[in-house]
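Hey L., structure's done. Input below.
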Amino acid sequence: MTAAALPAALWGFAVAAALFGAVWAASVVRRDASLVDRFWGLGFVVLAWWYVVSAGAPGLLAAGLASAWGLRLSGYITWRNRGKGEDRRYAVMRERHGRGFALRSLFTVFLLQALLLWVIAFPLFAAARGETIGGGAGAALATAGAAVWLVGFAFESAGDFQLARFKRDPTNRGRVLDRGLWRYTRHPNYFGDILVWWGLYLVACAHGGWWTVFAPVLMTVFLARVSGVTLLERQLRESKPGYADYVRRTSALVPWPPRRGAGGEDSGADRLR
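Output:
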């Protein structure tokens, strides 16, 4: 990123902070900090098109792919959480901090997510402001990126659909899902999410955005080691008695045929976004 492009990048953070600041204000009125989860995907949509419009350049492929992913994710989380009230993670924080939670959540929840979103969205910034690499290399990178994105989008969407259908059946209460994509990976949605961002990174590389590699790396680390797989599996081991057997026979993230002879009852993975 050149010094001349720095102000445009900082404006991107201002846009993300303004969006999540507005969501924070709504959360204070509704006493529901989990509104932030519903706007996570939508935040990338807003930022992608802000970069396109402010740069006065096409960059339509990256913005379009990010929009499809972000709108689906926000729509899914909104549908999944309807009528359920505040997520237990935020409810615990609210109880712990009492009256001070509203102001504290502005910084520790909403602006923190705005910062993460801004950093992870740098491939969208690079795609909007960079020039397409010539000699056919740019087109090849963009095509490869779109293909990787498509595989990831399919995994994430299908994984969410299969889990939602499974949880709608009351006979599955207390059990976990080990069919469909969940037979081959304990977290097909997280795996798909990671591929989506590596795909967007390749699209950015078609515009000289190779330097934004920190963005998909950060997303991968967060989903695999911090807020995704690690945090969720700690909860699942405590709440689902057959989960340990499922772990022994099923790949954590990258799809792979289940190991034989692990024993145990049918089990699978729940999800926390």
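Residues 131-273 form one domain. The chain has twelve helices and no strands.

-- N.
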